Amino acid sequence: MKTITVTKNQRAIIYKNGQLTDVLKAGTHNLFWGKTAQVISAQPAITAQSALFAELENGEFSNLLTRHEVDSNQLLLRFLGKNIIETYGVGTYLFWKSDMAISYELIEISSTENITTFNRSVLESAIMIERVHRVVVPEGNQLVVFVNGAYKYMLPADTYYFWKNANVFSFKVVDLRTLNIEVQGQELLTKDKTSIRVNFSGQYKMVNVHRAMVENSNYYAQMYAAIQLAIREIIGSQTLDQLLETKTELSNQLVERANTLLENIGLELITGGLKDIILPGDVKEILNKVLVAEKQAQANMIMRREETATTRNLLNTARLMEENEMLYKLKEMEFVERIADKIDGIQVHAGANVSDQLKTLFSK
Known about the structure:
The chain is built from 9 helices and 19 strands. It is α+β, with helices and mostly antiparallel strands and 364 residues long.
């Protein structure tokens, strides 16, 4: 005789001559000769693939078990009290009956909609998170849902959960905020056949999500190409001088033209402009020479204007002195004073009146 001990979370499967003869619950049991025991856990489900499944399902011990079948679009939830402790997908299962508050719920998971039957804390649990698709949509973004390759619907910013089922889900999170775009190094010819390179910088936003994400493929590449076309169309119709003189106006025309092309893509170019206009080295050298010549001509004109004004002032002064003898004498005394400032010394010779000598000196 042999003694075995079975805990409350175990079952002892008793065999005699290879045949199942008994199932023992928790306790201490004596086994007589010729019998063997297999002690197993009472917690996990017994699946249809198990050899024990067939022995228990149709035998006299089936009343000790609960049987559940789960289809491909169903999920079996096992509860302890109000808490989910296990989930089971497609298959057939046997569970040992227990004195604990164990319950089961079979739910449909074929839906392609966001799960609303369970709160977030349940869906975020380690047991449930493996059964769902979890998608976080940040503020300022929108979720586009595709099911089996086909567009389904759109959802605003939030956290969403979808059952993992026979459907194939695809999720695209779309940014609805204002974004930057740079179109660099565009080489083209102006109307007067001058080769230049331009850099464009702008800001855009998505205004029609369905048109951009569903009706069109790779909306960003299409937007980039549309702006390239607008740049070539607008700049190609201008000469180099017009381009340099009306850069701001041309930028506004460029944005307007680009938006007519972007309307079919579901995008809008909010602002934009030519950030850089890069000229070839020889053209840049010619323009520098032209600029220097223009500045030199302006400087010469200013000098001639000043010379003319000076001559006119001298003529006016001479005319006044000619008409007014006193003014002439005052001007003469002014020049004498300037000359006197530069004289280091005066020599006065004896034998003549000093005052007459000075008068003679300053009257020369």
